[in-house]
Amino acid sequence: MEDTPQKPAKTEPSPTHSPAPSPAPSPVPSPLLERIALPTANHVEHLNVNQIQVVVRRCSTPNVTEETTYFIPRNTVVDAGTNTDPPVVCCPLLRRFCPCPPRGLLASLVTKVLLAAVLFGVVWSITEDECLPGGNLFGITILFICALIGGKVVALIRLPKLPPFPPLLGMLLMGFLLRNIPVVTDGVYINFRWSASLRNIALAVILARAGLGLDPKALRKLKSVCVRVAAGPCLIEATTTALVSHFLMGLPWVWGFILGFVLGAVSPAVVVPSMLQLQKDGFGVEQGIPTLLMAAGSFDDILAITGFTTCLGMAFATGSTWYNLLRGLLEVAGGMVAGILLGFLIQYFPSVDQKHLVMKRSFLVLGLSVFAVFGSGVAGFPGSGGLCTLVLAFLAGLGWGAEKVHVEEVVGWAWDVFQPLLFGLIGAEIRVSELEGLAVGLGIASLLIALLVRVLFTFVCVLRAGFNLKEKVFIALAWMPKATVQAAIGSTALDMARTKDDEDQKKYGMDVLTVAVLAILLTAPVGALIIGLCGPRLLQRPKASACGTAAGGEDDTETPVTFESTL
Fold first, then answer.
1. What is the 8-class DSSP label of residue 419?
2. CA 304 to CA 450: how far, in whole Å?
3. Between the CA atoms of 418, 424, 427 and 431, what dihedral angle is there, to the nearest 10 degrees?
4. What is the C-alpha separation between 447 and 486, in angstroms, rounded?
5. For residues 195 and 377, is the Cβ–Cβ distance under 8 A?
6. Of 50, 195, 355, 452, which has the fewest CB atoms closer than 10 Å, so is most exposed?
7. DSSP alpha helices (H): ranges in 401-502?
8. Burial 226-235, CB ≥16 within 10 A → b, else e
9. Dihedral over alpha carbons 45, 46, 50, 56 (to 10 degrees)
10. Could you tell me the sign of the dihedral formed by the alpha carbons of 219, 225, 226, 227, in that order?
11. DSSP letter string over 208-231?
12. Which residues contact 530 (CB under 8 A, 6 or more apart)?
């Protein structure tokens, strides 16, 4: 009997080499084996990598052994983590950087591109040419993306021991570049009505945010020095700008005051982050200087916006001077009355027992703010819309109490969307080809003279406030940056002049906008640098804060100083 256990693979044993098997019954074949296609003997040597060779031995008698070779297809291994087939390995290096199917960052990028492509396809199928190069939707989208990228890039510029540069500078510059690059200008087209509408929406959002941000407790605890710092420099700068622009730039008196109130507002987007950085490091905290400037900044902006809307109504009114002055006062009174009524209305509606309370309140605040800004223009009282928005937002927040924080957060999200549009559109309004060198030079001269008078008068306002000489100098220098309010209201007069189709008023409106943009470009970065450099040198640091910093470094988790705790 020839024994064959060492042979690699064979089919049924040949009858010539082994005796016939015993008549014992063979085992019942497995159903799985019946479904397996057995290759012929000629293909045994050619074993495929996707096949598994199985040798089955059966012993019918002690002296007879049968061998049968089966070739079972190899089952693909399933990934236990994702329950999917593993990627095909074609190149280890390529698989490392580009897995198949894509995962991680590559998959996220592909998904975003796919979503953008689908969104573009849907919008294109509805609007057709509007979302192609040369259309309004295409121009607005490109401007928004570029302004957002410009803001992110500028925010990444950080100098040691200095607050970050405001992102609005990058947004403004990107809009300016898109408007003044010859090839890009033809593709990025935005109709002036679309641009004016978007800027007015952004104005309504920032006014609602300012009204909600007012703290009634800080209002009751404000000292006289805070009132002087909030009102005095703004009014003095507005008056100085009106005088200088009237004699240097040839603006009428009412347009001179429009420019003055545009420049009279200080920028919370620059002052507040810088003051928070100094407050975190302990500079001037015992004297309450950061809190003083942050609290006074809100009232400074409200005063400037109120004066601007009043003068704006007078500039576009027809009739005698006394009639226009009375009309301006009536617009202010009407805006306050409408704001009070709407503010009390949304205090109680929606009621506190309703679902989605925060979203309903946020929608009402934003919706009524936009309606007030646009509706006042339609009704012929453009000066009342801004004040109405401020009053209704303040009264609504006063009635909601601590719950207004959630509404402020939603309004902040809306501002994050419209901020790039606002500053990008403001920058896109400036065309280098249409600027006159003499007008720009006279505008810069008027701006510098008004800033000098503002700094000197701010120093006078804090003479008897209990500060030493260095602290007075710091307050005067820190009270000059301009950005947010100038962008929000700087183009409003030009937009109204375009609707009236008056060439003289268009020229005055362009002069106001040009000086406002120059004020942002000059004072926002310089003001941030002055605050960051002069704060540690001119302000005192508490001994406890200094010791704590020397011992264990800054504590980022400590409770920040608030308006109430300092005042």
1. H
2. 15
3. -130
4. 13
5. no
6. 355
7. 404-428, 437-461, 469-478, 484-489, 492-500
8. bebbbebbbb
9. -20
10. positive
11. HHHHHH--HHHHHH--HHHHHHHH
12. 477, 478, 480
Helices (H) then strands (E): counts for the chain:
23, 2
CB–CB of 469/502 below 8 Å? no
User: Nearest Cα to 9, choosing from 70, 74, 72, 61?
Assistant: 70
> What residue type is assigned to position 172 of the chain?
L
Instruction: State both tokens at 356.
Output: 């989605």
Q: 233 CB contacts (<8 Å, ≥6 apart)?
A: 264, 300, 454, 457, 458, 461, 479
- Of the candidates 431, 531, 440, the one whose C-alpha atom is nearest the C-alpha of residue 481 is 531
Instruction: Name the CA radius of gyration of the chain, rounded.
Output: 37
Q: What is the DSSP string of 44-77?
A: SSS--TTEEEEEEEEEEETTEEEEEEEEEEPPPP
Please name the residue that has the structure tokens 């010539």.
Answer: 16
CA angle 195, 196, 198 (to 5 degrees): 65
Looking at the DSSP bridge assignments, the partners of residue 67 are 57
> Where does 121-259 show beta strands of DSSP type E?
none
* CA 182, 188, 189, 192 torsion-angle sign: negative
Position 259: which residue type? L
Query: Helix, strand, coil % (nearest 5) of the chain?
Result: 70, 5, 30
**From the CB of residue 38, how many other CB atoms can be counted at a distance below 10 Å?**
13
Residue type, 120: F
Q: Quote the CA–CA distance of 566 and 196 in Å, as a whole number.
A: 41
Give pLDDT tens digits along the chain (567 positions): 444 444 444 444 444 444 444 454 544 454 444 444 444 444 444 555 555 566 666 665 556 566 666 555 555 555 555 555 555 555 666 666 666 777 777 788 889 899 988 988 898 888 888 888 888 888 999 999 999 999 999 888 877 766 677 888 899 999 999 988 888 887 888 888 888 899 889 989 988 888 887 777 766 665 678 888 988 999 999 999 999 999 999 999 999 999 999 999 998 878 877 887 888 888 888 888 887 888 788 788 888 888 888 888 888 877 777 777 787 788 888 888 999 999 999 999 999 999 999 999 999 999 999 999 999 888 878 778 888 998 899 899 999 988 999 999 999 999 999 999 999 999 888 888 888 888 899 999 999 999 999 999 999 998 887 889 999 999 999 998 998 889 888 888 888 888 888 888 999 999 999 999 999 989 988 888 898 888 888 988 876 544 344 333 444 444 443 333 333
Strand partners, 54: 70
pTM: 0.70
